[in-house]
IclR family transcriptional regulator
Amino acid sequence: MKTTDALPLSQPPSPRTLAQPPLAANVTALPAPPALSGVASIQKTLAILEIVAERGGATAKEVSASLGYPLPTVYRLMQTLVQSDYLVHIRRERKFELGYKLHRLGVSLHRQIGVPAEVRTEIARLHRHARAAAYFAAYRGADVVVTYIVDSPAAPRLTPLSFGFHEAAHATAFGKIMLTGMSGEQRDQYLEAHGLPRLTPATITDRGELERQLETISRSQVAWEHEEFVPGMTCAAVGVRNSAGLLVGSVAISARADTIASRERDLERMLRETAAGLSRYFRSGSVRR
């Protein structure tokens, strides 16, 4: 069974209509904590949320030990998050879990990035025909963001790719395509902000080498990366353009390197066909001729 990593956004649910699960008998609301302020408190609060999310729930002591924050500070900040519905306190298990308001924030994020139904359909078709995880990436401000993924147990996505991933453009096929769509100044700013970190032994970390590769990609209109992002995995991508000829996104696939070598020509053809269809959609509103 295939899985996707974006909400169906043609008619997104209003945050006000989302079901709000009542507090169960083993969930307790904590009293309002003292007021907190300051950048340091905000940073600590966000770090606490991330730890709770990563662990699927955590006690105040576990968070304190993991982050190195004093236990009273952690407990005070977690009380604030419970009061604001960003965390819930599971009394019976003596731990904190994510609250319901975070779901509403996630729904709003999906709505803002908004993947059209036509894009979702074409990426799902690419996944089926290529027998590989399939992706759509787009610009969001100065970032290159993965906005939709279709995969399955037989063709899983790359870890850590998920909706909203916006790192490592220098090491991903879709990222390289999107870098070619930037002006020289935009690319300079992006790479200065994100750097060229080495993710595998094959990752390109030299700016000159990357620029030469991007020139080749601009001419061929297809990007391949072989184990630059994840060892043992190969990715490919082709750009999607609007009516002005500007790059607005890229379609991509990923698969195990040992299964993809003999299929590169077919996969490239599928990518080009999918990108051509989506380019027609962004030009005219219709994928098909």
